[in-house]
Amino acid sequence: MALPDSVTTCLSQPVHYAICKLGFEKRDTYDINNILSGDGEVCWQAVTEHVCYLESDQSVDYIRSIRLLGPVCESVNSYFKSLTKEQFVVQYASWFHWTNCTEVFLEVFDVLQYTEATGVALGLMKLTTSLERALGDVYLLKDNDCPFLLRDLLASEQLADVFGQPVMNVLRVFIGSPHGLNLRNVLWHGFASPQEIPAKYCAMLLFLTAGLGQLLQTYLLQTKDVLVHRPYVIFVSLEELDAFPDLNNEILSIAEELVKLSSFVLKIMLPFWIAALTAFKQSRYADSVILLLPQLEVGLRMLFTTTNKCPNRLLTAESSALYTTFDEMLAKHLDNEEVNQLPLVLEEPAMESDFLWDFLNHQEGPRIRDRLSHGEINLETFPREIANQIVGFAITILCRFSDEDMFSLKDHMVIRPLMNCASRYRSRFHPISRLKKQVLECMKNIQLWPELATVPEEEVEKIKGLEGNAEANTLILMISEIVSQLQHYMPQNCCSSDDPINGVLTERLLVELCDTRVCTLYSPRPVLEVVAVLRKISAQCHQVSQQVIAGAGLRHTQWVNRTLRSRQRHNYRRMLNSIKFLSPVLRLILLLITLELVSVHSVCKKNPFDYQQYLKFLKSVLQYTENLVTYTSPEKNKWDETMELTKKTLMKIRKISDRKLMLMDLAM
After folding, report:
1. pTM reported for the whole predicted model
2. Residue 259 to residue 251: CA distance in whole angstroms
3. CB-side exposure of 437: number of CA atoms within 13 Å?
4. If exposure means fewest CB atoms within 10 Å of the residue's CB, which of 248, 477, 520, 602 is most exposed?
């Protein structure tokens, strides 16, 4: 990727002017005592007087407001620098308690004492995300549905009712409005370099946050309301995120060299990269990821704008247009419906896009960027495991976009395992991937059935008035016929033709089929519709399995203890009879699901028959499994009805399988 080092800013001219110059035009010295009372409280009326409004519609005049607030911000910054840490803690720490993360704001004060550009930018990113989360908690005092976007949150009537509209307008000058400084967005989306964020704006937001705490305390005393903080997101099953090996200092040292030489890194952003790697070494994992995610975005944006021949979109968009963000860069088409060229020029397009979709976008994934930037994660306990994956991915990107004369670094023995992991990466949180996981988990559960404690057959046969196994055997024969039809489309090393059920419907077969690589990138809507239904079917099958295991265990205990009444004994016999065919039925359904996954993209593309008709069939199978959940529940125990319903469904499956087999022949 040949990109010029001559890029000196990623801020468009109007945005650069607003952030870097506008607030410095008035050189008046502002007296801090005008906005600070003797006991250290913020005089909000004096602050809000600096916000100007347009005569036309009385909306905020952001240009004039930024200009007037510039000297106020400078005064606040100087005031904070005059305080010792102890003085600041005594005077202000209690006013940050409403945010539920006082330490973050005390840390920002420390950063302001040294005015190191990268530290200020990081501090501002952490401040805005923590402030947004806290404001959301306040919003929930008035309403149940908190807006997702900071812009909508700050413009809400609910917060205006608590803090007052003039106060909210002050905040919107700094964050949340694309017409103002919009500091949160230009940093979190990677547009601003460290040198472009004035420290005085960070100081002002720290000051305003304390002032909001003072206003909120008064409001809560008046209303007797209690502010409740939403719990942080807790990441579970971290092993699912394990894509790259653990990063040691040797790898990180090589990464520091790659950063300086890789064409993926803009020179003006280099301090962010170095700070991110340093933070990881120091076990500051949240800081590392907060610094790194915007840099991955700006690096990919460079590549995106180059390959799609829209260099102007490297810069921040104006307030009337959208930023070029991860969502658009990872999309299949541009907003003008042309094909996005970015995936086509990546060396491993599926890997890079799949990883980013997994970690940032997929709803069932960790959604790291959203949750970090909106304050949903406890920064103090951010998992090393996640940071390790983000940094590992970043290192592979640096390697891919490095000059050939850096071969010695890229092929270093400690870097090679990272590259190998990258090339083998498969999506873990796409709906197709989640479906595969569901199927295998369900199969493991069904495999517990043979271990269920049961009553000896000779004792069961003593119960009079019950039919034999003929009906169950008929169903098992139907299942065998369907499986035999499908065997041609299965890996032969996983099947035994001697026993179509126990020799074919096995976990080994499902593992083999689920291991087949299925394209998850840019899945068309018909595919996602089918997958959604298949996931529901799989979930219902799993619930049936769990209910059978629980019910059989309970009934066996009651049988042994001789606490079953006559009717219950008859029902238990029906349950045992039903288990004989239910296990093969559920395993057959799981097999059909996995076979569908293997061919689903080709099926949708060729579309040899009415796909909606097949979707209708799948929904009928879903209805069957939902009914099974009801019939096999402890409250119902309708085993005769289960048998009759299964027979009808197997006839449908056998009928549709003939057409499906022709379809799969065409798709292969």
Report:
1. 0.90
2. 12
3. 12
4. 248
